[in-house]
From TrEMBL:
Residue ranges occupied by any Histidine kinase domain in the UniProt entry: 370-590
Keyword terms: Coiled coil, Kinase, Membrane, Phosphoprotein, Transferase, Transmembrane, Transmembrane helix
Start and end residues of each Response regulatory domain: 613-727
A Pfam short name: HisKA
Name of this protein: histidine kinase
Ranges annotated as spanning the membrane: 311-330
Enzyme class: transferase
Record-listed E.C. numbers: 2.7.13.3
Record has Repeat as a keyword: no
Span of the signal peptide: none
Amino acid sequence: MYQIRVIFWLFLTLNSFNNLFAQTKLYTKKELTKLTNQASQYLNEANFEKSLKISKSALHKAIVANDSSSTTISYITIAANYAELAEFDKAIFFYNRGLLYANKTHNDTLKNRIFNNLGNIYCFEKKQYLKGINFYENALKYSSKIADTSQIFMIKLNIAWAYFDVGHFEKGYPNLEFINRNNLKYGDKSTEVAISMLNGMYYAHHGNDKKATTYFLNAIKSVNETNEKSDLSFAHLEYSKYLLSKGDYKKAYENLSKYNEITEVLYNKDKLKKANVAGINVELDEYKREIDKFESEKEAQIQIVQKSKTIVFLFMIISFVMLLLLYTLFKNNNFRKKLNAELSKTNRQLTLAKEKAEEASVLKSQFVSTISHELRTPLYGVVGITNMLLDEHKELANSPHLSSLKFSARYLLSLVNDILQINKIEDNRMILENLTFNISDEINMVKNALSFLAKNNNNSIVVKIDPKIPEYLIGDKLRLSQIIMNLVSNALKFTTNGKVTISLNLEKKEDKSYFIKFKIQDNGIGIALDDQEKIFDKFVQIGRKETDYQGTGLGLSIVKQLLGLFNSTILIQSAIGEGTTFKFVIAFEYNPEKTIEIINNIQVDITSPQTINVLVVEDNHINQLVTKKTIEKNNYKCSVVDNGYAALEILDKEYFDVILMDINMPLINGFETTRKIRLMGIKTPIVALTAFDKAEITEEALSAGINDIIIKPFDSVKLFSIITILISKN
């Protein structure tokens, strides 16, 4: 009786299903095209709610009509809506659904569009650049197949932008060249904006500030002419990044604010809320279609069973097998429950371990910030007192010991900064300086600074410099000195009663670039072949003895990363008992005219006809002494107070031309002190004189009312230049 009821129910269901198909209206290609065009138009107008609703309707009708092209277009529009709403995982899902239907057609234009849009999401939203560029390459294949040069133009623009976004300017530049060549033929107002931004980014990377600024301003101007709000927001964002890198924080903040204002208008919260509701309905319809498909297949199978006794018999056999399978699944389920209980326990332990690791990471960050401040503060005293000794005792000006002390303090400061910011080096956010320097003097300075270490192990240091190498070169002498210092000190540690040789040879010349081959050679204990790749890893020490002092294990790692900034690699030749040789090549610029210009610009006239009254707010007494001596040496008048409250009290009675403000002080810090000064209506320029890293405090310093920041230990010429500029503006 039960089986009869089931068969009867299936019969009624099948009849209802057939009636449903009989009543379904099939839409023409023209009607479907009209719907998909309406959905696209609403998308272009940022009316996501209407676009999603119409796309849902078009999708349903296209599937019923078995129109793969219209189905693909509907999925593309739905995915584009989700991409605009920052629901990128959903956008990827619907693009992939669209690709399934696109592959059923011969329309390569639709396939090209999907691959290009997936490339945009993975590159610029998911930050998975390799995957995104792979999608762009697939899009290029279809564009080339249909000979659509205008689409090739757009895709190459996207590829160039993706490479520039991650700092790979040389990889992206061939695409930018193609775009610049074909801009007049295939570009329009919107692409003109993007092309101007890309050129601005490229020239900013290569230090051509004039061209970079021109291109960025052209981008903003072009957007204003077309009134494309989205393009205008991106123009302000990229220009803001460039201004921030140049230290123009005020203009950078203004452009970032404009970007935020435009973005807020484009993505009104009410629109997003309504669109999300419509988007959920699309997903529900997708699930409903899957269920309808399953039910259709199920009813068809039941109908076949009713018409064939053989199939019924086979169905019974299959049912029996299924029962056995269910029994097996039941037993496995009990086993799985036990296993899940154990996994849950393990997951709780892993979660606890993860929380502890995150807590440790936060503590480490706090420690790095604190140790950065605590190391720079005494270094400020060392550098300052060294300069005071040179100024007050002219007879020590030629002392090699004092020169070595000054050089070592400068090197130690650089080393501390690099160790504390090693992640900054790895992220390619450290920029090399271009300064004129005497390469022979730098190498011999390293030799003199390490003479005490050489004497400890009865070693000698020999310097050999190719006479073909020009006396003055242009480059980052401090980073070069750090590389040589690390390699030579490492060689001296592992050499006894031996010799360390520093050799410089001119390998080749290309235009104004002189490629110099450096070789650091010792006859010490050597390094085993198996260990030679490990020594450049962080915190790795090979052959350490309990009685030895081998450092932190960061020296060679920093060398490798610094050479990467010079676009160079290091080679090693070594064997146990036969010594070690390190080799690398660095290209420096040789330009006599530019060298003379740089040297002439080093001496800056920082004198002033008027008496400048400076207030120093500093709690460290040694730093008070150094700063006051430095300021008074320039014939400025200087007053010193120990804390922020004392500063407020003296400012209420006396006028000052500029205030040098320490940040980390007891009672009240420099930020709060500055805010209180501004509330008093005092507009005196305030310079943060601090040991904190500049990137850590820039945002809060600007919001507090601080005009500029200089990091201790500082260059006195730079300090007085900043003071002169601020006073003239005030």
